[in-house]
Amino acid sequence: MARYGMALDYKNCINCKACETACKEENGVLLGADNHRIWVGMKEIEGEYPNLSIASNTFYPSQCQHCDEAPCQEVCPTNATYYDKDGQVRIDADKCILCSYCINACPYDARYVDDRTNTVDKCTFCTDTRLARGETTTACQNTCPTKVRIFGDLDDPNSEISQVLQNREHFTLKSNLGTKPKLFYLI
Amino acid sequence: MSTEVSRRKFLQGSIALSVIGGMASTNLFSNEEKKGKIKTTTKTNTTQARTVSTLCEMCVNKCALIARVENNIITKLDPNPLFPKSRNMLCARGNAGIQALYDPDRLKYPMIRVGEKGEGKFKRVSWDEAFEYIKEKTVKILDEEQDNRSSFMFCAGEGMAEHTFKTFYDGFGSSNWLNHSSICLQTVASAYGVTLGTYPQADLENAQYIIMAGANRAEAFVTPDTMDFVKKVKAKKNSAKLICVDPRFTNTAAKSDKWLAIKPGTDLAFVLALTYVTLTEELYNKTYVAENFNGFEEYSAMILKENYTPEWAEKITGIKAKEIYEIAREFMANAPKAIYYPGRRSTFSKNDFQLRRAMAIFQALGGGIDCKGGLVFGKQFKLKDHEEIIPMYDNAKARAVVMNNQHIGYDSCAIVSGGGSWISWRNNFLEETQPYKVRGMFCYKHNPMMNMPNTAKTAQMLKKMELVVCIDTMPSDTVMYADVVLPECTYLERTDPVKTFGGVEPAIAQRNKVIDPMYESKPVIEIMRALTNKISKPLFEITKKYDEEVQSEIASSSEKEVYEEFDLTKPFMFSQEQINEYTVSDYPDAAEKLKTQGVYYPKMDEYFKQLSENEFEYYPEAAKSYSVNGGKPVTPSKKVECNIESFTKKGIDSMPMWRDEYMYSIPKNQFRLMTGRHAQYTQTSTANNAMLKDLMYQNYLWINKHVAAEKNIAFGDIIEVSSKIGKTSLRAYPTEKIAPDNLFFIHGFGQESSELNWAYKNGGNDNAIIEDFMEPVYGAAAMHETNVEIRKV
């Protein structure tokens, strides 16, 4: 059993969307701007031309945080949302009744509806594609031009992600909610 | 940072708002009826898959990739970690290559025009019928032009198989060749070429100080520069300082330590002022300059005499004098590990050639030439040449450029380079000022309708041309003007000429066929083989009729023997795979490695190491080619050429100087239009890609927020942008990231070909409004000289 997580060296992100396209092609994500598993968050820059704040323009890659205490799992009435053996938060499409509770409960806004199946979908860390084939990377991690993403087993002290988290300062999003996300942003 | 990471919030504020709408299924070219609705993405499987190592062609970078094939369908493209140039990455476009392959709008069959030119009405024909048509027209024209082979023009876009098409051009014997260079990197490549001897690469990985001016590597991808600069700038230890100089706040500016909003077209004044500070404060590398410069005294004296002070430059560029002093000092303090980044698609303004010369000289003043952390020449593995034929046709006229009697040089530019000047050629053709008639053209993987300023004129040119043959994968705007359309297969369906990639970590790479060509499409080498089989003998008959040299040669030897030299089929006799094997045969195991791994360099087995999931080592430090010429330039004199006196005879400044006409000014109520590249689109070639459209549906007009507010323009409003030559419409994106008198939108949108379901009339077409201004040295298109007006529609 592994406990997969991802560390994001997010300051290297240039918002090129290689990760988003790789994810869609790997996992057969339906096209449509609303339907995607991962994204890069940004906001309009602060200041007035030409005095703009470079620091205010940071890009934040994001996706399902695969929380250890996932609010989406707590509210799911049919147990469609569950933790798999490697700690990923997964959705059993057969059980999903599209009640949308999980979409509302997710503080990271990581879930969307797949219009083909009328069920909820989100990032799975490529569990049923790459990991199932015995590969050790996710599609987004593998393709990233500036190598923002470090993926691996948090329970293995020798894994790259464990080493990085030990040696570099990092934070998680909305940690005050107690969801214990497994996406870590490196400072 | 709680709000901006939300997917919904992100979408609300994003310019990627639109969702792909319903598509008309009336497309003549579409296979939807036969094959059902488009399946836009395919989930990869856990069942058995075949993998093929090949190279990307979604842009010019040629990154190495591994294609995953399941049930003969390509389901995923992944980066190939073996290639030092692309360093285990595949960008959004590279990942979306599957959509280019399975695009339902693809050209599928040979076609002959039945409607008016530009109307897009074609009939499907067999390959043989298409070649027969070309033969008849070509024979007729060449007969009437008495075997002047130059009565045909050949043009091609950048790519690995461009070489195959050029082999055809060489054999055909025309002297009219036009490629992308004069609408791309002609001025920068040539300016560095005459100044340092070559257009160098930049060792961003080891630089301590980087000035990136007018180059946007976070969005306009160049490998490995894009990866190297970001990692270097954001590295935790031993990081580099990045100065971004750009009129627009780009994603590169977002990664920089300092962003300087320069006025468009005034970079030359900025560099001259940096040079002034370097000279007056004696910051330059005196030993390097003494040993490696030609004309330093004259250049130095001129800079001082002209008084190119930072205070002078501040008035022109809008960059504070204080900043210019600081940057010159910091750059020279870090030299030679300091880089003034050369850039690429760079003919922004009429002074571009002199700007690039000034940049090269400024770089050299710090000694950062052919050394670690500076500009590098790199090593390259030699490949064997395969057979080509270049027959001598006695009646073939020289290139159709206008000679001007008033001064030495050509009519519209001083130097006509290998790739020619597209704009000047087109305009001369239309004005009928060429020395003879050019009546037909062969166009390969090139889209002059979309890629050249003043679209209306290009349309006129194509209408006037008696035979237009287009070889392409997509029904582009140019294909709509073709008489004969020959469908090429996409890059994933063909093996291309093997290519050697020079650099600090040189390698050879090969594009391997992943699946067989779909429909009736063929690789260009097979198209050339079949076409030359059809036309070689009939064309030789024309030559025999008019070429006295050939006639007397036949009289003295035999026709069979003479024909040997004119046999156009010869270069295409072998398959691409066979040619590639021969090309790399100097390297014992290369051919096999290239077939299975896509990448080869000697000692790869020993050198290549995976350091982590993310990092790879290609060469040990000691084996890297940081310096190949002992730090000396590679000009014929082995010196940095500051003062090239022979230029004055052609009316070009012998040294980079500022002239009053370079001054930036904008009439009231007008804007200076800028265009550029994007991380998710490659010029016009990706505009119909379903996956990429999903990221950003169309291009947007960047307009300063305050100006937009004054004019009551909100996000998404449709704005008509017009210049002296035309107009185009697109949606507004009010932002602080652009100056009040500038406008910007990315190039490649607003296509007029109705056969491109997604790209048709989607967004704004920059070249419909960019005027055909040329820089005077090479006749390259000066893309940022056009002033425009706007109107809310």
TrEMBL record, chain A:
Gene Ontology MF term list: 4 iron, 4 sulfur cluster binding; metal ion binding
Classification via InterPro entries: 4Fe4S_Fe-S-bd (IPR017896), 4Fe4S_Fe_S_CS (IPR017900), ET_IronSulfur_Cluster-Binding (IPR050954)
Cross-referenced PROSITE patterns: 4FE4S_FER_1, 4FE4S_FER_2
Ranges where the 4Fe-4S ferredoxin-type domain occurs: 4-34, 55-86, 87-116
Signal peptide: none
Keywords tagged on the record: 4Fe-4S, Iron, Iron-sulfur, Metal-binding
Keyword Kinase on entry: no
Protein name per the record: Molybdopterin oxidoreductase
Organism: Candidatus Marinarcus aquaticus
From TrEMBL, chain B:
InterPro entries noted in UniProt: Asp_de-COase-like_dom_sf, MoPterin_dinucl-bd_dom, Mopterin_OxRdtase, Mopterin_OxRdtase_4Fe-4S_dom, Prok_Mopterin_Oxidored
Family: Belongs to the prokaryotic molybdopterin-containing oxidoreductase family.
This protein's UniProt keywords: 4Fe-4S, Iron, Iron-sulfur, Metal-binding, Molybdenum, Oxidoreductase, Signal
Protein name per UniProt: Thiosulfate reductase
Domain 4Fe-4S Mo/W bis-MGD-type: from-to ranges: 49-105
GO molecular function term, any single one: oxidoreductase activity
One Pfam family cited in the UniProt record for this chain: Molybdop_Fe4S4
Native organism: Candidatus Marinarcus aquaticus
